[in-house]
Amino acid sequence: MKKIHALLLTLIISLSVLLTGCGYQYKELNLRANYDKSLQGTTLTVYNWGEYISDGADGTIDVNKEFEKLTGIKVKYLTFESNETMYSQIKSGGISYDIIIPSDYMIERLRNENMLSKIDTSKLSNYDLIEDKYKNLFFDPNNEYSVPYNVGLVGIIYNEKLTGKDIKHSWDVLWDEKYKDMALNFSNPRDAFMTAQMLLGQDLNTLNKADWDAAAELLKQGKSNLQSYVMDEIFGKMETGEASVAPYYAGDYLTMLDTNPDLRFFYPQEGTNIFVDSVCIPKNAKNYDAAIKYINFLLEPDISTANAECLGYASPNTAVINNKDYCYYQNEILYPDESTLPKVQYYHDIDNEIRTYYETLWTKVKAY
């Protein structure tokens, strides 16, 4: 953890570089693949996390507009705040989505419930750019249903101006009365439970109901310390100093740092969640061919770099990872080596009985 603290000092010293140099500037796209207008006039419905794509701000690439210009396909772009929200929408069938970008455990669930279409990777000329260690993962062992988009870890963001420099590198800070009414926690059950499970030394995928009971009880104990449960609202609260301590994704910390240089970050000593968000095509997609084109476009080196710099997440794309002009090249928060990598666990799709159990507990925690 000392190494990470030293790294943060380096990051702050380098802030002026980050503020001015990080943001993929371009005049003309250099593309590996050929894109035609055979599907011109059709619509591609994309369902993605909020603030999770390069949108043209500050002279960067507007990914969706560039895709529309190249292909003539209209992109209908919608956003969600959590995997669970996305799942509910897909399950309801009210809207047909052509592209979704869930996290690993949710992909496993969607695959197990036969809610995803297979992706013909032979049609993705840029698929070779995906780093091998992000292929054949537990949620898609044969690389049939997903294409990696972003990689991340969860940590604690804090406002050093409000908390002071002496802050314990532990999940316990969310329960610390020093930060009462200034602490935030996740508003989705899996991540919120993780903050308590790590403190309790649990397996994040435990099938023991007593473990979930203990985690729920700890969350109840800490609720009075919280200002609120949040997802995308964290950006405004941490950037403006309305809140001082919050768990969130490392990539989003780097985005918030651009706005508020008083923000700092650490990985808690107890360990944390690692995740891979990937692009999928739902079973009821209406424009499969356009979805394939879009996925290949997201893998383009220029597009992947623009997304990686805009979002601040680690990229699974070797064209980004090996690009020395990439502004987060070898950044140890995003790409920690063995000496700085915290103990990590993936979320897995959990037995339906246990999932229903912890979701019921979560409802009780929020109502407590």
Uncertain runs? 1-21
The number of helical elements comes to: 14
| Helix content class | 25-40%
Please provide the ordered H/E string of secondary-structure elements.
HHEHEHEHEHEHHEHEHEEHHHEH
Tell me, what's the shape? globular
Number of E-state strands: 10
Radius of gyration (CA) equals: 20 Å
Largest sheet: 5 strands, mixed
Instruction: Name the CATH architecture of the largest domain.
Output: 3-Layer(aba) Sandwich
* Fourth CATH level, the homologous superfamily of the largest domain: Periplasmic binding protein-like II
CATH overall fold name of the largest domain: D-Maltodextrin-Binding Protein, domain 2
For this structure, what is the CATH class of the largest domain? Alpha Beta
Please indicate the count of domains.
2
Arithmetic mean of pLDDT: 92
Structural class label: alpha/beta
Percentage beta strand: 15-25%
Account of the 3D structure:
The chain has 368 residues and is α/β, with parallel strands linked by helices. The protein has 2 domains: 194 residues, Periplasmic binding protein-like II (D-Maltodextrin-Binding Protein, domain 2); 150 residues, Periplasmic binding protein-like II (D-Maltodextrin-Binding Protein, domain 2, 3-Layer(aba) Sandwich), CATH 3.40.190. The strands form 3 sheets. Strands 4, 7, 8, 9 and 10 form a 5-stranded mixed β-sheet that branches. Strands 2-1-3 form a 3-stranded parallel β-sheet. Helix 3 links the parallel strand 1 and strand 2. Helix 7 packs across helix 8 and helix 8 packs parallel to helix 14. The N terminus is likely disordered.
